[in-house]
Design brief:
It is built from nine helices and nine strands. With 286 residues, it is α/β, with parallel strands linked by helices. The relative contact order is 0.14.
Length: 286
């Protein structure tokens, strides 16, 4: 009797094995989707662009949520993480109504959810209202998705989306370190970062707003200063004490291709710190 490969001469040993591995992976992913609740739960230990994840997942052992679209949601689920789909915020260049945000929610209905990248002041006075309307409609269309929003200065409109349950998590863009190539304006003063967090408290959304350290980078800033792990530790304790109801912490990894031992240790330090200060409080959570 002819073997399967003899009957299919174009199917080489390599392609046969590859197809077998792909089928096995697909089955594993399907199992992960059906066996695991994909909605993330607090504490939220968030990363934006965990660029070294594919090389060493242990660097992000404590990460629960990729809120950048960097990781494929299905592969993230296999590692016990949640990966959100990236979406524009109030910086959408060609917006003319709420349709974009509604569509993003609908398209994510079978996925964990979306991460709105930039809730920032817009030159278009209608933009924030369109985004809010689209997200509210999207929440009704796909009630089980998770919606995270990255914000510079919190606004009453965003606070209303948190209050009515449309938005699940707000991540404050509180970046105190940026590589010199980004210029002087990319780095925030510490007092500015606290002001943004305080604004969230005043608007009544403090229990769903977390601080983001960034940029997590091996590069020096415009004044020639490197990011100091000890400084991050000190400031993280300050954030934990000042905002005890904040449901987690976040880190923004910049686009540096650096894969040195020292940078890996910096990433690992941030991850370990997040787990120490914002540990799991109940049964195993992602």
């Amino acid at each position: 009797m002819l073997s399967f490969m003899q009957m299919n001469p174009l199917l080489t040993r390599r392609s046969f094995l590859s197809s077998t591995v792909l089928c096995s992976t697909a089955n594993a992913i399907g199992t992960a989707e059906t066996a695991t609740d994909h909605r993330p739960k607090p504490p939220f230990r968030v990363w934006y662009q965990p660029r070294l994840f594919h090389r060493d997942m242990s660097l992000y052992a404590g990460m629960t949520l990729d809120a950048s679209g960097w990781l494929d949601p299905k592969l993230a689920a296999l590692a016990g993480k949640t990966g959100l789909r990236w979406a524009y915020g109030t910086n959408l260049p060609d917006a003319n109504g709420p349709a974009y945000w509604l569509d993003m929610c609908r398209h994510s209905e079978s996925k964990p959810g979306i991460a709105i990248d930039e809730w920032v002041p817009s030159k278009n006075p209608s933009m924030e209202g369109w985004a809010a309307e689209g997200l509210r409609a999207g929440r009704k269309s796909a009630p089980d998705i998770f919606i995270a929003v990255w914000v510079t200065d919190p606004t009453p409109v965003l606070a209303s989306l948190v209050t009515d349950g449309t938005v699940d998590l707000v991540i404050a863009e509180t970046y105190t370190h940026a590589a010199a190539k980004w210029g002087r304006d990319a780095t925030l003063h510490w007092d500015t970062t606290l002001r943004r967090m305080d604004a969230a408290q005043q608007l009544g959304m403090g229990e769903k707003t977390i601080f983001c350290f960034g940029h997590i980078s091996p590069d020096k800033d415009i004044k020639g200063r490197a990011l100091d792990p000890g400084w991050i530790t000190e400031r993280a304790h300050e954030i934990k004490e000042r905002y005890p109801k904040a449901p987690g912490i976040a880190f923004y990894q910049d686009d540096s291709p650096d894969d040195s031992k020292s940078f890996r240790e910096l990433v690992r330090h941030c991850d370990a710190l997040s787990t120490k200060l914002w540990p799991d409080t109940g049964p195993a959570q992602r």
